Amino acid sequence: MDKKYxxxxxxxxxxxxxxxxxxxxKERKTRNKIVVFLVxxxxxxxxxxxxxxKHYEYINxxxxxxxxIQTPASGEIVKEVDGIPIDIQFVAKYQIDGxxxxxxNYYDYDYFNKFSPIDVGIAWGFLADEWKNAKWENSPxxxxxxxxxxxxxxxxxxxxxxxxxxxxxxxxxxADAQIExxxxxxxxxxxxxxxGYLAYVDWMGPDGKYTWHSSTKRDDYGDGACEIxxxxxxxxxxxx
Length: 240
What we know:
Elements: E1 3-6, E2 12-15, H1 17-50, E3 56-59, E4 69-72, E5 76-81, E6 84-105, H2 111-115, E7 118-123, H3 127-130, E8 134-138, E9 144-148, H4 151-156, H5 159-163, E10 167-174, H6 177-184, E11 191-205, E12 208-213, E13 227-239
Parallel strand pairs: 3-13, 10-13
Antiparallel strand pairs: 1-2, 4-6, 5-6, 6-7, 6-11, 7-10, 8-9, 11-12, 11-13
C-alpha cells in the first residue's frame, strides 16, 4: 500500500511500503554504527584511565625474599604542585621486593600528600612469610604501625629491633601517569618489585622551606625511618 508523505518543502507525494522498509533499515544501520562507535570510544576512554597490563618479574620463592638493593646515585627533578615547584633529589638507586603488608591513600591537602598520596608497607626476608603474626596499619601521620598477635613469635624474632629490619613504610612518588596508575593498583598481599630512587624532597611553602628526606638505612625506626621512593617501575612478582 502506498502512503502519503510530505517533504521538507511541504510537497506531498506517495511512498511505497518497500521504500519505507528500505528507509527504516538504513536508519537502523546508521543507529547501530553510532552505537558501536560510542561503545568503542567509551572502551578506549576507560582503558586509558583504568586498565593496564601488569608487568611480571620472577624470583626463586616467596619465603625468604632478599633485602632491598641500594646503590649510589645522583640527579634531580622538579615537579610542580599547585604552582609550587617541588625539588626531588635522588640520593640512591633503589629496588625493593616483597609482600605488601599495608597500603594507605592520603587525601588531605598537604603538599606532600598531593605529590605522594600513597604509602605502601613492604616486608621481605623471614617477615615476608610470617607477617600475618602481627596486625599492620598506617596512621594518618604516615607511620606504619604493627601490633603482634603472637607474643611467642615476637620474642623469638627479637622484638621491634630485629623485626624492624625486615619491613619498611614507603612514601611513593610516581614518575609519570602510567606509574601512578600502577601504584594505585597495588593491593595488600600482592608480591611486588618497586624500582626507582630514594629521594630528598624540598619545597617553599607559605611558612618557609619544607624538607622531607628519605631514610637510607634498613635498621632504623621511628620518625624519619620511612623510605621516600621516586618510582620509575612497578612489577608484580611470581615464583619460578
